[in-house]
Write a structure and sequence with these properties.
Blueprint lengths: L1 E5 L8 H14 L4 E6 L4 H6 L6 E3 L1 H5 L7 E6 L5 H7 L4 E6 L3 H5 L1 H11 L4 E8 L7 H7 L6 E7 L2 H4 L13 H17 L1
Parallel strand pairs: 1-4, 1-5, 2-3, 2-4, 5-6, 6-7
Helix pairs in contact: 1-9
The structure holds adenosine-5'-diphosphate (ADP) and magnesium ion.
Magnesium ion (MG) binds next to helix 1.
Length: about 190
């Protein structure tokens, strides 16, 4: 079983959205995928009934190795709580969504410190909610170079298909082929790291 943890010490950056979309992508490609929600706010849990092809398992089941899946995708809270430490200890890859803004990049410092403490070896920063007119600025790229976590090649743009993706069983249930290609590219990059 491989475990992908989606983490970032900031809310509203797309952790839950990317967790469910990559999980749905892997499930569409035949993997036995489970999702787990380590965020007490429970956004992923609340969405799970709408997501076909994904089984919601508890964090406890994952920790006890009872999830019975090829792949588990775990959504986490922006808080550095006990569950975060426990699931990071199991992570094969940590996906870190970051919005391309100055304050968003600064929030990465806390996340990077937590990952270092957890001894995480494989992680990637995914730029999310990139805007066309305001594509990732040189300032943000320079700031990102100050972090030891590699930046993924894929960028996820701001698209309505993502906002609606809980209702459409992911972007693959929409007709937005650009969003679909972004999730596919992101998933492939993650697979290369597993
Ligand atoms: N790439 C994107 N384009 C448009 N809306 C997005 C995108 N990523 C996330 N969102 C929206 O932004 C909001 C916050 O995303 P969410 O996944 O809940 O963040 P987090 O789990 O980090 O708090 C949600 O309303 C979600 O639908
Ligand atoms: Mg969330």
């Amino acid at each position: 079983m491989k475990t992908i943890v989606v983490a970032q010490q900031k809310g509203g950056v797309g952790k839950t959205t990317l967790a469910l979309n990559i999980a749905l992508y892997f499930a569409r490609n035949g993997a036995n995928v489970a999702i787990a929600d380590a965020d007490a706010q429970g956004s992923l849990t609340a969405s799970a009934d709408l997501l076909e092809g994904l089984r919601l398992v508890s964090v406890q089941e994952v920790l006890n190795n009872r999830a019975e899946a090829d792949l588990v995708v775990i959504d986490t809270s922006p808080r550095n709580d006990a569950d975060l430490a426990k699931v990071l200890a199991l992570a094969d890859f940590v996906l870190i969504p970051v919005k391309p803004g100055y304050l968003d990049v600064l929030a990465l410092k806390d996340t990077q410190a937590i990952l270092q403490q957890a001894g995480i070896k494989k992680a990637g920063i995914i730029l999310n909610m990139v805007q066309h007119r305001n594509a990732v600025t040189r300032e943000v790229q320079e700031l990102l170079q100050g972090f030891s976590i590699p930046l993924m090649t894929t960028q996820i743009f701001q698209r309505v298909a993502y906002t609606r993706s809980t209702m459409t069983n992911g972007v693959f249930g929409s007709d937005d082929v650009k969003a679909q290609a972004e999730i596919e590219n992101l998933a492939d990059e993650i697979l290369d790291n597993l």
